[in-house]
Amino acid sequence: MLTLPEYENFVYSLRAQFESIRASTLIVKRRSPTSAQVIGTIYFDQDVVLHVFETVDFLTRRIEDYGYEVYHGTEKLYWYDCWPHPNDPSLASTFPHHKHISPDIKHHRIPATILSFEEPNLPALIREIEALIQTL
Questions:
Q1: Are the C-beta atoms of 110 and 119 separated by less than 8 Å?
Q2: Contact 33/56 with Cβ under 8 angstroms?
Q3: Rounded distance, CA 109 to CA 124, Å?
Q4: Residue 5, preceding bond cis, omega within 30 degrees?
């Protein structure tokens, strides 16, 4: 995991790293000298947006909490969160990371192999959205 200043630079340079990003309102809100929240929205072509919420602890060098929601227009396509579901054996391989998908998006969950607490998740999420846009 990056340091807090490195993470800020990473977040604020995403548009330069990914041509698919049309605009971003992401901000890094420092909560203490060693923690921050990343909140905001990344806008892509085809009216696709990624809403981001992360809490990062730079003392332990971990993402402590997150939620990522992907919309196409007003339709929520899927979301990721790390809320534990220990009684769902189908999610054990990536516990607690999982993705909510249709049908029954609230209850239909699959393992989230692209997410981690130890590395930034945004590059993998952006690449996933870039692939999605190709299908729209």
A1: no
A2: no
A3: 18
A4: no
